[in-house]
Amino acid sequence: MITYISILRALNVSGHKMIKMLAIICTLIMLVSLMYGFIRGDFFKEGSILLSLAWGKISFIDVYIGFFLFSAWVVYREKKRSVAVLWIILILLLGNLISTLYVTICLFKSNENLQWFWLGKHYKTKR
Known about the structure:
single chain, mainly alpha, globular
């Protein structure tokens, strides 16, 4: 079976570049999905229907658990608390569109250093 990863490996794309490409693709998918939802749907009417269903409630809980975990990582890695708070507010308002954008930006800033990507302000350079 041909997969996205096997195609990238055949093209000799590094692991870091694969992660960057995946983050960009996820960001674009979220952007298009949100645009579709806001253009074609009624956020409040459909949202109230979803929250009246058992799986709608479970999905809501699932999204917010992910939000809190991701937010904890943002707070952990950012140097300035105000920057972390701004990212968290944006994530709360626009969801995983902002999460994927944050990951994409951090990947590009990391210069292929995944330790810096994950640890942010806690990364210690080797002497």
